[in-house]
Design a protein that fits this description.
The two termini are about 30 Å apart. The protein has helices spanning about 1-10, 15-25, 30-40, 40-55, 65-70, 80-85, 105-115, 120-125, 125-145, 145-155, 160-175; strands at about 95, 105. It has 2 domains: about 1-80, no CATH class; about 80-115 and about 145-175, no CATH class. The chain is mostly helical and about 180 residues long. The longest helix has 18 residues, at about 125-145. The radius of gyration is 17 Å and the shape is globular. It has a two-stranded antiparallel sheet with strand order 1-2.
Length: about 180
Amino acid sequence: MKPIATGYDWLLPDAAQRGVKNSLDNLNVVRRLTNNLLQGKGAGAARETARFTINSTIGVAGLFDVAKDSFGIKQGDEDAGQTLGSYGVRPGPYLVLPFLPVTTVRDGIGMIADAAMNPATYFFPIGTTLGITGENTLNERSLNLDKYEQVEESVVDLYGAVRDAYLQSREAKTKE
């Protein structure tokens, strides 16, 4: 993915990459809102509703994150894996599968539930939806090229470092 992301980063200016990220994040409001509600986080649900309203109007269909930049309303990142964890479902084994992000069994099931909450899956054919997902993955990778490179250079065991960081991060997010 790194060579493709490097070329993508060269082609698109950072402002365009951030616009793509912002608009795709804006579409994920259904996932974040629903998971906030399922976890009993009313303030989080209200925050996501406010962010969506502001960014969809003033932020030109979500291209600009006006809610964060002008109003200081930060985006949450609640997902179904965290929701399942908040109900006591254990993470299960760590998985590395082709063409998918690293995950655990619980978070993998959560990704399926989150995908079902993506409005694009109901309005676009599967190929378009997969294209949007691929674009999002590529865009995220290109925005974080330096971060990934620093990690690769600073660790001896990349697999172990990624696994440990992922499991610790997910545990912390589930406890929030």
